[in-house]
Specification:
single chain; about 110 residues; alpha/beta; three-stranded parallel beta sheet; about 30% helix; about 10% strand; globular
Length: about 110
């Protein structure tokens, strides 16, 4: 059985989404994980939701390499969490076709 692997964002912290996709493709990963929302104030911001050019570059790179997006990061669930604050993240994830691949997942 072929094991599938995804290049997680923290494995290449700070790499822009188009370059992250290239890195995953060049190193033989089956998928890529992208961070769309920063976790700290000190990390790079890749505003795919508001930077149409960056989003188009990212989509082009996905199409050129055939590497799909497995997951996007990050949503913080806090006491004052507003689900609508995730609208841009979810819309962008949908534009990148981020979805769970057809795979059997362990149960339990």
């Amino acid at each position: 059985m072929h094991q599938e692997f995804s290049l997680a964002y923290l494995s290449a912290f700070g790499v822009a989404p188009p370059d992250m996709i290239d890195l995953a493709w060049r190193t033989g990963f089956d998928y890529v994980g992208l961070r769309l929302n920063p976790v700290t104030r000190n990390e790079p911001l890749f505003p795919l939701a508001s930077d149409r050019n960056l989003l188009l570059q990212t989509r082009r790179r996905l199409a050129d390499t055939g590497v799909p997006v497995l997951d996007v990061e990050l949503v913080r669930l806090t006491p004052d969490f507003d689900v609508h604050a995730c609208d841009a993240l979810l819309d962008t994830a949908a534009e990148l076709n981020a979805e769970l691949p057809n795979a059997e997942l362990p149960v339990g």
